[in-house]
Amino acid sequence: TSRAASTTRAASTSRAPTTTTRTTAPPPPPPPAHFSYHGPSGPAHWGSLDAAYALCSSGAHQSPVNLPAEPNGNAADLSLNLKSLAAPVLFANNGHTFQVAVGSNANAAGNYVVFKGKTYQALQFHFHGPSEHNWNGRYYPLEMHLVHQAADGSLLVVGFLLDPYMAPNAFFDTFLGKIPPAVSVVPQPAGLSWAALRKAVAGSSFWEYSGSLTTPPCTEGVQWIVLQRPVGVPLLLVKQTNDVSGFNSRFTLPRGDRFPDHPEDEEEHAE
User: Fold this and answer.
1) What is the average pLDDT score of the chain?
2) Torsion of the alpha carbons at 134, 135, 137 and 141, rounded to the nearest 10
3) How far is residue 155's CA from residue 112's CA, in Å, rounded to a whole number?
4) Where are the beta strands (DSSP E) in 190-245?
5) Which of the residues are catalytic?
6) Average of pLDDT values for 154-172?
């Protein structure tokens, strides 16, 4: 048996060395194309800036839209849950808008929407000026979008129409003078209470429709909830968001068949 073992050992030591083949990782994908709200990179051209943005031009269910005169939402379908955010709260200037993180907050789990039995967790909210949706032909100076995502990846956005000609809601005082002037993320040492905003919109009627993101890549299948009751906002906040972000509102797109009880004149949407 010792000879066999010796022979086996000799054979094993005489084997050719193993060659290791090195593989080169593929290069990272190029960053998405820059977009803006003006000129050749503005909304009318988003679909041609990048193949990933094609839906911005070709999509049939895009957002925002001109809202019909009467809300179509069923109050029993919607439960909006807002829990105060714990400090620190992250304020960001992403180059397109002022944005506040919710999904990464310690109290994130308490901020969610249940719509038609499906739960969507809040991710962030941000601002557009002037409003992207309009109602009865009226644009508001500012619109806030509270973005949510379900476990299956689907999105739901709650739109708040903000009016500086109403008594300012205390919720927005938190942001005065604190919008980062340059692209950055700035932790704020105080928490954020939703109490005043929650009270202002409690029981509001709403529009609901299937639409898209209002920025590239203009992904469709987004569930939209736009609250009918406007909320007062400090005029100074409208100015400060405009100073930082400038005009950052996409024009309205045709409603198509999404509000069958309220057909839209083809000339009604604004480009």
Assistant:
1) 90
2) -50
3) 12
4) 206-212, 220-227, 231-232
5) 96
6) 97
